[in-house]
Amino acid sequence: MTLLHLAILSPFLMAILVPFIYKFVRNVHTGWFVLVLPVTLFVYFVQFIPRNMNGQTTISTAEWIPSLGINFTALVDGLGLLFALLITGIGALVVLYSIYYLSKEKEQLHSFYVYLLMFMGAMLGVVLSDNMIVLYTFWELTSLSSFLLIGYWYHREKSRYGAQKSMLITVFGGLAMLGGFVLLYLMTGTFSIRETIGYVPAIMDHYLFVPAMLLILLGAFTKSAQFPFYIWLPDAMEAPTPVSAYLHSATMVKAGIYLVARLSPVFALTPEWFWIVSTVGIITLFWGSFNAVKQTDLKAILAFSTVSQLGLIMSLLGVGAASLHYDMLDDNIFTVATLAAVFHLINHATFKGSLFMVVGIVDHETGTRDIRKLGGLMSLMPITFTIAVIGAFSMAGLPPFNGFLSKEMFFTGMLRVMEFDLFNAQTYGFIFPVLAWLGSIFTFLYSMVLVFRTFTGKYQPEKLEKKPHEAPIGMLIPPIILASLVIVIGFFPNIISYSIIEPAMASILPTLLMEGEHFYVNIYMWHGWTPELFMTIGVVALGVLGYLTLPKWRRIYNLFPEKLTLNKAYDGGLKGLNTGSERLTKFYMTGFFRDYLAYIFAFMIVILGSTIAIKGAFSYSFDDLAPVGPYEAVIAVVMTLSALTIVFSKSRLSAIIALGAVGYSLSLFFVIFRAPDLALTQLIIETVSVALFLLCFYHLPEFKKVETKMRFKVENFIISAGVGLVVTLIALSANSQQVSDRISNYFIENSYYLAGGKNMVNVILVDFRGFDTLFEVVVLGIAALGIYSMIKLRLSRGEEQS
Amino acid sequence: MEILMSIVVGILFMAATYLILSRSLLRIIIGTGLLSHGAHLLLLTMSGLKQGAPPLLGIPADTYADPLPQALILTAIVISFGVTSFFLVLAYRSYQELGTDDMDRLRGNEHE
Description:
Number of helices of chain A: 34
Structural class of chain B: mainly alpha
Mean pLDDT of chain A: 86
Subcellular location (chain B): Cell membrane
Number of helices of chain B: 3
Helix content of chain A: over 70%
Strand order of the largest sheet of chain A: 1-2
CATH topology of chain B: Helix Hairpins
Number of strands of chain B: 0
Strand content of chain A: under 5%
GO cellular component, one term (chain B): plasma membrane
Helix content of chain B: 55-70%
Organism (chain B): Metabacillus lacus
Oligomer: heterodimer
Number of domains of chain B: 1
Radius of gyration of chain A: 38 Å
Membrane topology (chain B): Multi-pass membrane protein
Number of strands of chain A: 2
Low-confidence stretches of chain B: none
Largest sheet of chain A: 2 strands, antiparallel
Low-confidence stretches of chain A: none
Distance between the termini of chain A: 59 Å
Shape of chain A: elongated
Distance between the termini of chain B: 54 Å
Mean pLDDT of chain B: 85
Shape of chain B: elongated
CATH class of chain B: Mainly Alpha
Pfam family, one (chain B): Oxidored_q2
């Protein structure tokens, strides 16, 4: 347990304190106390930057379950540090924003900050854990806290729906990921990610390698809202806006990105990884941006935009995997994709966070997020407007903002796929730049819609619930900080390139670096008349044209029927599962006792019969049989006839008497087969039983009352014949397969010498195996007590209730 | 002899199963009684039916019948008797309270 562990776990400790602060300090907003923690953590993590720049990483281990190889190993390398800074930095801004966003009087602040801190700690744990099981633990904690935060206004139906949906999808992925980790463990014998990288050359051809990869990717894709699992993200927008800004744009949805980047050294050499990650990413990019244009809710636009941007980063990580196929660092043209991924990750967190906060301000000040009701807010909210322009232009990829730089690099990366001469990339690679370019046009479109539909055009005060005015300064500070970062990184990208981006790339592509080498990243605003620049000019030109003619071609969205959307598929699937399982249960749980007995008997026949057939268990030898005497034959016939009489008798009296006949012939068998004690007991007990039956006979109804005659049922007959047959077969085979000497010789030899009795059966009952007899007596006692209480104890319904 | 006994046991099991699958509670109880008879006979048969003296050391003989299955059967008889009598009284009481012994009408109420 070091300071680093304490830093990761500190949000959880703080979460314990929050309810007390909320209860005892009511006149100060609880958020002010919470704010201290992320700021402190941010400062703490900034200290790691110089060390990481020199290529050093910080590792410390705290033992958790050492016997299973599960230890809390905290690892701060370039990638982990980048995420830790994002989490704590944006976390601090979001907490500040939430202080002004959530009212002290109306909201349950303690639950909000408990969930938020829980999330922050879980997220730090995800990005700083080296052990996969610990990573998984924190991963599920992020799902859980996200669920709680989405359902924060739990009295709303839509919040609960969104929370449930995100829970089901992300937990599904999380479990798949756990499966992948376990498969990796089976191959390597370690849960440590660093050690796993060392095993990669040895396990690459293992038959579990690709399944493990697919399962882990499933976890990453569901968490990062990739196609087709993105559907939970738009519904998660029911959460309070600070939550959307923090979880659903900057941090949690990047956990999947983190996982892909973190495990790139493990899986990236396989063609499956290259194709799946980059294709899923590029499809998500296009589909997300295409759908964002048709949304009318500001947060829904941002949700689809997040989906699309995550797809962009994901596809860049996939393409970056290509660089591992070239050992040389010099002239390795594919590392630019990884660089673009890391760079855009940072940029997206800055501009998307500020845009969410802007939307929150608009919502807070006007009472609506519907762009059809909004317009003309520019003069009323000038600062908010400025931030929105900066964020949206950066998102659209316009100079001089940071989005422009990463978008140019994105185009570069996508164009270079066509030069990759492995895995058929030269044949199908052209699809990447085309989809990327189309996606960028739509990105430009919705960015413009976001800004200009909200802040320009006609002011419609009659449609708004409140009279809009500029937000309080505290609410504006966090987006102003983020927007300034957008501009600063846009103009001086190199301040983060050496300190943060290079170490992060070193963690994603460790095998490319020799000892002491480091990536050389230099980002220029102007890089000459390249194809990428012309692509951007094309994006702007077509985007402007598209925006101006938007009402005309908007109709193409109506071409897609509502029934075929993925949301409908999800809802239908969930409903189908419910009704399907209900129908299945109703189908076999009939409530009729007889049906259950029929299942039991049928399964007994099938299982025993098939086992006998498959294992060849049936064999019969005719040696060693006792001869059939005339008495036995006669009694056997009598017994069979009486048994059949019971079945066919129409009155209960004859059935009872026939049962008595079976019992008495059984005692005759006992006589013949040399069992005097058995014969005695059987005679007495049969007599008492028949008497008891006759006693009940008086009180029970005639068979006729329920069945005029015993109807013959074919299925019952088949089942009972099967049972009889199976029992006969088992009896025959058991009889001819006696393998060892009998234990009874011991009883025969010793019952007189050891126990002093000549009746061997009685000696066994009370001496050798006396315990059986003890509990048999207990059974009789319980039966007697049960009968007594059943007859005596008569609580009617009224008495029971009183 | 063992073959004959095995077949008789099979018939007993078959009749018992058929009775247990019927609608009347009394028939089901009779079926369980028949089933226990079959099981006891099966126990005895599977241990071999070779001739020998009864398992009493007072009778001088070379071979005795196997005493262990007899002890097991004795235990089983007593237990099945206890259970059967309990079951009978249960049937009697349920008929008194519910007014039917038709298994189909004794089906549970779905809305409880």
